[in-house]
Specification:
Radius of gyration: 20 Å
Distance between the termini: 20 Å
Oligomer: single chain
Order of helices and strands: HHHHHHH
Length: 195
């Protein structure tokens, strides 16, 4: 169960650095947290009960399809035909590969069910996070990625590139910290296995 909360220390550090979020963002934050937890649970169950070579392609191939369907229903986006065809070909290839593996290995169909639930979970938390960034963004909110895009649109390409590299470097540092904390927690919580 500790693996589900491995990002909690980083979330608390984010609250300490960035402060408490706006109250209007709280429903989106709570929904995103619940969907991320659901994703983690469905992913672990899918990997626990299915083969990685079957579950992963179906999960990653179905998620963009679910994102497209849900965003089309709720947001009515303008997607160029070439982009749509590209998305469908890539997703169809990944899903077809997973289905072919499922058929060749004569595995039970519940692997496919877990993989599709995980793909739907990815789509739901992705749309929720995008909604939170796009619709809750205000003049006093300064996201580094949005600031980088604004700098690029204003013609400050060097500043935009520097900000983008800063985002990459900070991501590496935070990911490293996350790995260290997760490894430490995993060793502490699983020490009983070495007895």
């Amino acid at each position: 169960m500790s693996i589900y909360f491995s990002s909690l220390p980083l979330a608390l550090a984010g609250l300490w650095i960035g402060g408490l979020p706006n109250v209007t963002a709280l429903p989106v934050i709570l929904l995103s947290a619940a969907l991320q937890t659901g994703y983690s649970i469905s992913l672990f169950k899918a990997y626990d009960r299915g083969q990685l070579s079957i579950v992963y392609p179906v999960t990653r191939g179905s998620a963009p399809v679910f994102i497209f369907i849900l965003s089309y229903v709720f947001f009515d986006p303008e997607i160029p035909m070439k982009t749509l065809i590209g998305i469908l070909f890539i997703c169809a290839g990944l899903v077809a590969y997973g289905l072919l593996e499922l058929w060749q290995n004569k595995q039970e169909s519940w692997q496919l069910t877990f993989a599709l639930i995980t793909g739907l979970s990815i789509a739901l938390y992705s749309i929720t996070d995008a909604y939170g960034v796009i619709f809750l963004y205000s003049y006093d909110t300064t996201l580094a990625s949005v600031s980088s895009i604004h700098l690029d649109e204003q013609g400050d390409v060097a500043g935009a590139a520097a900000m983008a590299m800063l985002i990459v470097y900070i991501s590496f540092i935070v990911r490293g910290m996350h790995t260290i904390v997760s490894t430490f927690l995993l060793k502490r919580t699983q020490a009983w296995r070495n007895i």
